[in-house]
Amino acid sequence: MRAVAATAVGGPEVLRVVERPDPVAGPGKVLVRVRAVSVNPADLGARRGLVPGGPVPPPFVLGWDFAGEVVTVGDGVTDLRPGTRVAGMVPWYLTRGDSGAYAELVSAERDWVVPIPDDLDLAAAATVALNASTARQALELIAAEPGTPLLVTGASGGVGGFAVQLAAQAGLRVIAGAGRDDEEWVRGLGAAEVLPRTADLATVGPVPAVLDAVPVGTPAAAVADGGTLVTTRPTPSVDPARRVRQHVVMVRLDPSMLAGLMAAVAEGRLRTRVAVTLPLAEAADAHRLVEAGGLRGKVVLVP
Ligand SMILES: NC(=O)c1ccc[n+]([C@@H]2O[C@H](COP(=O)([O-])OP(=O)(O)OC[C@H]3O[C@@H](n4cnc5c(N)ncnc54)[C@H](OP(=O)(O)O)[C@@H]3O)[C@@H](O)[C@H]2O)c1
Question: What is the average pLDDT across 69-83?
C-alpha cells in the first residue's frame, strides 16, 4: 500500500509517499480502506518531534482521524463486516507511528472505529473522532452546571468548535474567542457571545470556567478564583491561593462516546467543517496550509 511517512523530524518537506506492506486484520482488529484522513495539529507536532513521551524515531506514518470502509475483519470481530463504512481514530500517542492513518489501509483495533450511516460524508466523518472526543472529555472535566458561563478559546477550530456546540447544548452560556470573520459560524454553533481572537483575556470575565482549546494568551487571567481551567496543552500552574481547578485534557478512546458523537454529526446535531480536500500524496502541502493558518475547517487528505 501507499502511505505518507515522516522520513525525518522537520518541516513539511520530510513527508514522503512510501510503499509499505499491506497490513492485515489480526485478532480483534479490522482492516479499513481509508477514504479520508484529516490533518490535525498533533500530526504537525509529531512531524516536528513534539510527541508526549518523546519524539518518535523516523520514518513513521502520521495520522489520527480517518474514515473509510472495512475490508476484512479479524477473529473475534462479529459486529462489522466487509463494506461497512466506519470512522474513528488511531490513538497515535499510543501507537507512536506503528500505525497511522496517512495510508491507503489501516489495521485498526475494533474499538478505534464506529460504523457510520451511508449518507454521512466520509471527509466530514474524518474530522470528528479526535476533536469531538477531546471537546467532550474537556467538558466532562469542567463539569459545569447549566447556565454557567464558559469561555472557549480557539472556538473556530476543531476542538473549540465541538466544545462550543456541546457546551451550548448542555445549557452553558458560551463566550467564544474566534476570528471576526468567523463570528457568524461560531454564533451558529451556539455561542452567546463572540470575542475577537485578539481580545485580552485578562479583560474577560472573570468566568467560572475556561476551556483553552488553543493557547492564545493568559487563560488563567480570565478564570474566577475557585473556578476551573482546562487546557489542551500543558500550561503554567495557577497560583494555588486562587484555588483554580486546573486540568490538561488528554484524549482517550471511548467507543460509546465516539458512537454518540458520530451519530450527532450524522443527524446534523453537531456541525463540522472541511476547508479543503487534497490527495494523500500532497500531505506536505496540506501541512503547509495548516501551518499558514486562517483555514475555516480541517484539511482532509484523500488516499
Ligand atoms: N490534549 C489533547 O488530547 C488534544 C486533542 C486534540 C487537540 N489538541 C490540541 O488542541 C489544539 C487545537 O486543536 P484543533 O484541532 O482544534 O486545531 P485547529 O482545528 O487547527 O484550530 C485551531 C483554531 O485556533 C485558531 N487560532 C490559532 N491561533 C490563534 C490565536 N493566536 N488566537 C486565536 N485563535 C487562534 C485558528 O485560527 P487560524 O487558523 O485563523 O489561526 C483555528 O481556528 C491544538 O494545540 C491541538 O494540538 C489536544
Answer: 98
The pLDDT of residue 227 is above 90 = yes
Percent share of the chain, pLDDT over 90: 90
What is the model's pLDDT at position 197? 84
CATH of domain 2-127+273-302: 3.90.180.10
Residue 42 or 198, more confident? 42
In 74-198, the DSSP E strands lie at: 85-89, 105-109, 113-115, 149-153, 173-178, 193-196
Ligand 1 lined by 292 (C-beta under 6 Å): no
The answer, yes or no, to whether any atom of ligand 1 lies below 6 A from the CB of 143, is no
Phi, psi of 166 (to 5 degrees): -65, -40
Query: In the chain, pLDDT over 70 holds for what percent of residues?
Result: 100
Residue 160 CB less than 6 A away from ligand 1 = yes
Cell of 94: 499510543
- Widest Cα–Cα separation across the chain: 57
Atom of ligand 1 lying closest to residue 131 CA? 6
Domain edges within the chain? 2-127+273-302, 130-248
Peptide bond into 59 cis (omega under 30): yes
pLDDT of 189 > 90? The answer is: yes
Which residue's CA is the closest to the ligand 1 atom numbered 45? 214
If one residue of 156, 159, 276 were mutated to test the ligand 1 pocket, choosing by the most ligand atoms within 8 A of its CB, it would be: 159
**Distance set, CA 244 to CA 147, 206, 208, 230, 257 (Å):** 19, 12, 9, 10, 28
Predicted TM-score (pTM) of this structure: 0.97
CATH 3.40.640.10 fits 130-248, yes or no: no
